[in-house]
Amino acid sequence: MTAAPSASGGSVLLAIDPGREKCGVALIIEDRTVLHHEVIPTASLGEYLDTIRRSHSIHQVVLGDGTRSQQLAEELSRPERGLEVLLVDETNTTLEARQRFFQDHPPHGWRRWIPRSLLTPDRAYDDYAAILLAERHFAASAAIAEADSPPPSG
Predict the structure, then answer these.
(1) Which of 17, 22, 107, 120 is disulfide-compatible with 130, CB 3.0–4.6 A?
(2) What is the arithmetic mean of pLDDT over 50-60?
């Protein structure tokens, strides 16, 4: 189960952390290289998908199994879209995304002395949750592939 190849030769996957008002989206290659990530309004997800598919051949979407996931999965998996939608457990992704956000955007000035657990990120970080969902999918796929491979002969 891999997504379509990208210009860089890897498989590209669209990961979505769905929410009522906004969604985190990420394009990530199988080697875990993040091509793009952002937070968009949930209402514009269809338009975003149409735009991103003009530049990337995407056939699989990883979707967090929380808020609005069933409704969104049904919408994304309509036959005319040609997408395979894979639900991924999103337990603790918000906490992990917050940690990842602060790794990529460490606090500066006086904020660096405040424990990160007390800081509020200066922007929404749902896109980091989408990255984590893709990573979970790739890890699960690798584990399945490893379990399915024949044992080494010795």
Answers:
(1) 17
(2) 90
Give me the DSSP letters along 72-97.
Answer: HHHHHT-GGG--EEEEE--TTHHHHH
Q: Which helix (H) or strand (E) holds 143?
A: helix 126-148
What is the model's pLDDT at position 143? Answer: 80
Rounded Cα gap, residues 45 and 113, in angstroms = 38
- Structure tokens given for 22: 């906004």
Number of H helices, E strands in the chain: 4, 5
Domains recognised in the chain with CATH numbers:
12-147 (3.30.420.140)
Its pTM stands at 0.86
Residues 6+ apart with CB under 8 A from 93: 17, 64, 129, 132, 133
Give the span between the Cα atoms of 134 and 154, in whole angstroms.
Answer: 35
